[in-house]
Amino acid sequence: MRFSALSIILNGLSGNTNWSAHWRRPEPKPDYDVVIVGGGGHGLATAYYLAKIYGVQNIAVLEKAYVGSGNVGRNTTIIRSNYMLSENNPFYELSMKLWEGLEQDFNFNAMVSQRGVLNLFHSDAQRDSYTRRGNAMRLHGVDADLLDRRAVQSLYPFLDFANARFPIQGGLLQRRGGTVRHDAVAWGYARGANGYSVDIIQNCEVTSIRTSNGKAIGVETTRGYIGCGKLALAAAGNSSRVAAMAGLKLPLESHVLQAFVSEGLKPFINGVVTFGAGHFYVSQSDKGGLVFGGDLDGYNSYAQRGNLATVEHVAEAGKAMIPALSRLRVLRSWGGIMDMSMDGSPIIDRGHLDNLYLNAGWCYGGFKATPASGYCFAHLIAKNEPHETARAFRLDRFRRGYIIDEKGQGAQPNLH
User: Fold this and answer.
1) By CB count within 10 A, which of 82, 153, 256, 258 is most buried?
2) The whole model's pTM is what?
3) CA distance 92 to 78
4) Model confidence at 362, in pLDDT bands (50, 70, 90)?
5) How many whole angstroms separate alpha carbon 91 and alpha carbon 46?
6) Which of 14, 145, 40 is nearest to 367 (CA)?
């Protein structure tokens, strides 16, 4: 069913009893042309673009729990393309352009809100660094504005400009950045993929991968064996474990990243603001709660929960930037499993088997990359060659020494 003003009126008159389910709940077939492991944003987007653009009909997406139960449903919803490196910037700008037309594309309200992303700077050196980044963005055709202290103060007067330790000197603003409703992205892509006859199989955990003569021939799951012509892995924080089933060791570490939501407030923060003297980012949801987060918990884990030391660290950074936050109550927090690559940039590449494809290592950037990730991964699966904007995200770059180090801090996951 397509959503429209007319369909809403007609269903309202009929007591909202004629809406159809967004996607089917099929039983697994014995085999598929393409099996995608991971029913999060990246896996569903890949299936959607594979079917829509490349006409692949026989596709299954396997999700071990339910759609939206992983990282796509537990993040801070920020989208942006304010990257500096030539390998990253065109890719995330592609994602931004896809975000801008996404709701019309799959006929679902994902609540794309381009309210702007502002990165604060607190020293001359940081200003110079942001100037360089802004210039790099503009060279790639991406919008960027360097604001002085007065301009920032006119946008967000409640920031602590008089802080003796972290004085705010200005900020780098990308006006096209903003937020998107995270679970609606999962539902929209699932609904869109279902419209192209993709089988979305929930509560179907992959337990092993069968290989023969250098190819993946199928997967053992909690719902039986499923054969495949091509096998694509988009398992986010569990990428290492799933790839190991095929005999592949990935250069990834799994870390916990916490996020938080405060009690509801009247409209307070119009866009997204990040702290330059510490890792803290905040925006306000449509329900009024402040959504914020910070650093990884700093140790390897598959647990979707965090520790109080990081809660304290994030709260301190937030209050240093916005003193008024000290009066707020935090309603809830949650943790996502981050698949941290060695250089902080992702992997979209073929694996060591002829028909194995990898989508992993998204670190902090997984949600904002969802449309471009699915778009480029679908291209790789269909064409057996990388999309032009994802050519640098090769698996062997770590062995060859061609790391994509956006932060310039070296090949260590916890620094990215």
Assistant:
1) 82
2) 0.96
3) 12
4) very high
5) 15
6) 40
